[in-house]
């Protein structure tokens, strides 16, 4: 058995760069993002191509720096100055991107634009300021996204570490779905400069450094998001309402409800511009009018479809557990490279939509007042014919590779005074690593491995185990 346990352990393989880029069969079982370990690694490895460090010229005088941190930063060169769109997370990464931009223009920075207020887009602004502070544009509701959930910031910080795999070793790391792992975060937020020009809710069309530029309000991942349009160059900067992955309609680090329907509508609005180049908030730009427009239309349709299927299911009386397994991307969208669930997942989105619209209660009176975990665990043990039998079932589940079931049984056993809690904990660690090895959704994978490491190190309390 021990040998089998070792065999199921996650074998971390250093990522090799291969040429595989798109159209990999995802073979999702029952709405989950689990495949063979080799396939999962190959897929995450292929996604890595989306954020290799480079400066990409997407049009005359328009440059995008990809992979200098988690997000993208862009530079538009005008007559007597440059415009910067988004500034990365901290000044050290931003300075490197700026240095790379400086090979293309040494004109002064006339304006900085924040597409939205998330830290990975605003924290490096000071690196782009050489003298006087330039105009810094943000929407009227700028900052609204970060104001929520402050009361639970202690646990959010822990979950953030796990989702992004911040404590994982180089060998355990893959990536973050739409961003590389191991980013330089020591100075995160240190270069932040607040907006000094407010973009009204009706949007704004103006000229900066001789460049015609339009600001369009587009709530999505955050309520304070906008997208930027260059009418002459036909380039659209989407912020985080588009990147190459199924969108993170819910983040497992813990977020308030993201208005999924607005997100779908904002992306549909972007598609109407039929851009020649689409610059996402993360991952590589998409070139070509047809490719960019199709990607935006597909993205909007995908989000809208998940929303609609969930709402229809709710109205048909289905609960979140049922819907999380039943709702699927429309067949024709499943293998689109920009909709593979590297970052967001459909089941997480479905649960978020459910609780966003109805709160925690699933409408079934059985769940109005469920048994407390310890009592339930005792009843399950009785049903299994005793704690010993329940323990054997847990071990058997692990040996058979039924990792989720092994996790659920170990979570019962942890409440039982006569259980071998050490063994239950060990099984949980092995099962988490088993799931992680098969997982191509980066946040899930990072979370499983991080949690297994925490359990193994003894850092987690008995309660959390
Ligand atoms: Zn971002």
Q: What does this protein structure show overall?
A:
By secondary structure, this protein is an alpha/beta fold. It folds into two domains: 144 residues, Serine Threonine Protein Phosphatase 5, Tetratricopeptide repeat (Alpha Horseshoe); 306 residues, Metallo-beta-lactamase, Chain A, CATH 3.60.15. Helix content is 37%, strand content 13%. It has 14 helices and 13 strands. The strands form two sheets. It has a seven-stranded mixed beta sheet with strand order 1-2-3-4-5-6-7, covered by helices on one side. Strands 8-9-10-11-12-13 form a six-stranded mixed beta sheet, covered by helices on one side. The longest helix has 27 residues. The chain is elongated. It starts with a helix and ends in an 8-residue tail after the last helix. It binds zinc ion (ZN). Zinc ion binds next to helix 4.
